[in-house]
Amino acid sequence: MKTDVNTPSPREGKGEGVLYLIPCTLGDTPIEQVLPAYNTEVVRQIRHFIVEEIRTARRFLRRVDREFPIDDSTFYEMGKHADEQRFASYLKPIAEGLPMGVISEAGCPAVADPGADIVSIAQRMGIRVVPLVGPNSMIMAVMASGLNGQSFAFNGYLPIDDGERAQRLKQLEQRAQRERQTQLFIETPYRNRKMFDTLLRTLSPKTRMCIAAGITTADEWIRTHTIAEWRKQTLPELSKVPAIFLML
Q1: What's the CA gap between 33 and 10, in Å, rounded?
Q2: Among the four residues 10, 43, 53, 136, which has the most C-beta atoms within 10 Å?
């Protein structure tokens, strides 16, 4: 039996417009491997989507349901720069009691993602926001790393300049040691190797580091070693694979 997104439940009210945060896969992983069937039922009943990029959002919807009515749907593109007035206008269908969905390029919307600006506006407007279950590479990396899962911090991208990057890494290492807090950060795939080399040069031999790459995909590769041990390891080719680096 299909789920009616407007059926009253603990998470939504009858006739109330809802903003659904719709996770997508982290790669070409089969939908059924990482997304629950409930997500599919919710998505099938939405016709207004706020997306990071229209082309990839349309492709994702086709993967969710080959017969999804793309031509009957409206897409609102976020673009690269936040515009609060424009973003607020995107939410008008919700005022009419219609459900809307936010779709990121990969993983969970609003986590290290421009969808956070949409959610912030929705919360200020009193709109009900419903996060759906889906893959989150940061949480999954922490799970698989063996590092501290009680306290961790995501630091996004580090400086590109070599000197600034090394300085920032030392700061994160000191914080990790002082607070016993796992530090997470990411890099553009083609710079993964350069990041790895910088880590080996900069960090203490006793610092533990995890590289979690291609999570949930056929290329998934997750390893944790001390820096001293990493210096003896051969790193696989990661120039085209999204990766998260963790240290403690």
Answers
A1: 26
A2: 43
